[in-house]
What does this fold into?
Amino acid sequence: MRTGTGIRALTSRWTVVVPLIAVVALVFSWGRDVPPWAVGLIALCLAGAVLAAVHHAEVVAHRVGEPFGSLVLAVAVTIIEVALIVTLMIDGGPKTATLARDTVFAAVMITCNGILGLCLLVGALRSRTAVFNAQGTGAALATVATLATLTLVFPTFTTSRPGPQFSPEQLAFAAVASLILYGLFVAVQTVRHRDYFLPVTQEGDLQQEDTHAPLPTRRETTVSLVLLLVALIAVVGDAKAVSPTVESGVESAGLPHAVVGVVIALLVLLPETIAAVRAARHERVQTSLNLALGSAMASIGLTVPAIAFATIWLDGPLVLGLNAVHMVLLALTVVVGALTVAPGRATLLQGGVHLGIFAAFVFLAISP
It folds into this structure.
């Protein structure tokens, strides 16, 4: 009787039902031309799946603690983002040669300026000063800067291939180096220097885990982990179903094709954005920064190697090199980020500056 009641209580929760409905919408829309009214329904399912993903990510994070919780969501989202990019590149042909670059760079700008700036703003509004661990956050920012330069800047200046492209040997080196750097960072974050990535109090002491909420059981955590993956698959799959409408809308509006990559990155990063802002509202800014910078790092460190492997059977060129405007934005992001991270404290000003850079990125994507 208890088992039946527990199952009914579980299946009645919207966080379980909504991801399943979103997956059903994905199944019926996959590979089909979807009418406008159906696109609206899929968009609603997409929004519901995002909220459900955030809920289940928070359950898993509460069980395993920081920084493992942030790592679970960042890696899960990025793996499925890679699948989305590869799928769109297979379907899109030569016109998607810059899709990986556009999406990865958009993810870096969204995470390192949009999410980071918004979380600093929320944290500063709550406590006047947002505090975090400069050692861990600085290490994460340095790794993001290195990965971005290695994979997105160097192709513009290499001479083995015409245009902003790597040669096969250079692409293989960049892919292996990205994986090694990402793996090294994860080892440092979760094993050797885990305390560098834990939330801190206003006095700089390590913040204790929330004690007012009981830890979820193993069964609840397992169910939430499975449903998190289901919700993320639904998010990316439904985003793919909506993407033709987005592409046609971008083309009809006369906007650059790079805007498609920005929209895709915004959709895919919605769960992390909501989770990061919620953490900042609870004065756990370090958790927010773990999510933001960890997502940027995973987006590069996992996407580029996967795309490099996929080029074995993908036709057409792979353009990874950034143009001059984007390189300036990346350099500005790294410099401002370093100045923001170094003190271990930030005010409304730092949050506003990062949001200003993000606004410039969005504006220049629309009007290059």
Notes: The two ends are 63 Å apart (CA to CA). The first helix runs from residue 2 to 11. Residues 69-213+256-366 form a domain with the A middle domain of Talin 1 fold (CATH 1.20.1420.30).
